[in-house]
Task: structure prediction
Amino acid sequence: MTKTLAFVLYPGITPLDLVGPLQVLSALAQIDTSFEVVVVGQDLTPQDTDTPLKLTPSHTFRQVTVPFALIVPGGTEPTFAAMADEPLLSWIRKAAQTAEVVGSVCTGSLILGAAGLLDGRQATTHWGFRDLLAKFGATPVAERWVQDGPVLTAAGVSAGIDMALHLVERLAGEQTARTVQLFIEYDPQPPLGGIDWQSADLDFFKPHARAMLESALADHPALLTRLTA
Amino acid sequence: MTKTLAFVLYPGITPLDLVGPLQVLSALAQIDTSFEVVVVGQDLTPQDTDTPLKLTPSHTFRQVTVPFALIVPGGTEPTFAAMADEPLLSWIRKAAQTAEVVGSVCTGSLILGAAGLLDGRQATTHWGFRDLLAKFGATPVAERWVQDGPVLTAAGVSAGIDMALHLVERLAGEQTARTVQLFIEYDPQPPLGGIDWQSADLDFFKPHARAMLESALADHPALLTRLTA
Result:
């Protein structure tokens, strides 16, 4: 039976969160036809992102009920609002009951948390929001990606590429992972090198993060209190 | 005056080619409002990609006439077909007359070549198609990205992220580039390390590349002969 790898689309996401691992897993599905990739959303209308680009899913939530894997991308304010999107959370909860991989990129893990799927798990997210994971009963971990049982969470935005390559290796072996990496020519050379976490100013972001949460969850005071108390 | 950074969308692209640098330059535009980002296409209908995801541009070609920068993403067969898409080539040629940056990711450089913009330039593309650049009068270079006058070309797919960070540094300085890199948490950790070019089997791809070209350009024998003779 074909194993469905389902990317979850909702309004306002950071598109690289989704498209990085989508490109990796689409290459897997091209090489190994026991896998198929879908992008699922509430309906098939184009959805805004945090860039001028709009994204359109290939399937509705109703059409994809028992994916082998689901991957939830993140974003900023719209992602925090999505923590209170019951139809979205409900599809994720149900799909997670049978999925072998329950994944996220960036702040997508906060949606997994809001769906109750991170309780007692090690997990990660974008560095600017890592502390919030504890509010959902998770143990925050500062790694590029973290696997704990079926739960596979990646750090911010571009980390989804690394996580997806790890997943390809796990599902189809090292040789296939190397072929996929070659296809997408993933031989990264950040012009200024990697991030120097010691010298990076991370504190400047805290008031912005707080303001985004307060704005996104203005109509959901209980959840806002849970996350900011 | 606002400087417009225009991503060029056409049917069938590899979405990571576009979304990687789009996410980087959108972060630049958020930090420095003298820049704006647009995604331009023939019209505003959702367009297929080489994944199940559809992408919708924010502007039509007619709406964006003098961009500061244009960036053309690549793909496989549909990109080779686009080398003969006259409305697309015509917009690119015209925009390139005044643009300070004429960019591409992956096989997008072959479209720049078909538009006559690579003659006498150093350029790069996806490793599987690098030889084709010479057919357009360019000197192929095996680098992550190559700048030659206004022409800025990146290697395959994921290389667009590195190229875009270089462009941010050039346009807005090192500190802004570091901030953008932090926002998208670009601290790559490929699970199997970088690509080992010495041991990678690159020759297996040649017949596939040839077959894709022949299929895409079946109706354009002159261009096909130029590229394969």
